[in-house]
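name: query_chain
kind: protein
chains: 1
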Amino acid sequence: MIEIRTEDDGKPVTVNGPHSSEGTRAIAAGIDAAVRMLNYATMPGNDGIVYPATVYSVYGELIAALDKLPQALQQMERWVGEQVSEGAVRENPDYGKHAGDAEAAHATLAGATLAACAQAAKLSEALGRARSAAGGLESVERD
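structure:
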């Protein structure tokens, strides 16, 4: 199990909260760190994969994560949209990409979020096919 903390001596972030901006950023950083660890674990010679069943299981866990990701992306997009609508968030005209137009920035963010969610679904489907193919594989004794 991976624990995510906002401070070295702090309590782990949990599903039930309390939640904070620092915790939310730490969760995203934890996802990045977990993928990096997975990359190292799956390198040839690192013994992170011994059986085809491991590949099957890892694909399954990645599918589960991808299927949940759109919810977080959509919730962040909605939060930004609500904040822009209420006038609580603006785009800085000095370095924003939309000349200070927060509504245009949100529209771009919303479109990109929609596209990202669609790509996550496509990736999940592709991994499902890979998982299905791995499901029939088994190790054999070699002389």
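note: DSSP finds three helices and no strands in the chain.
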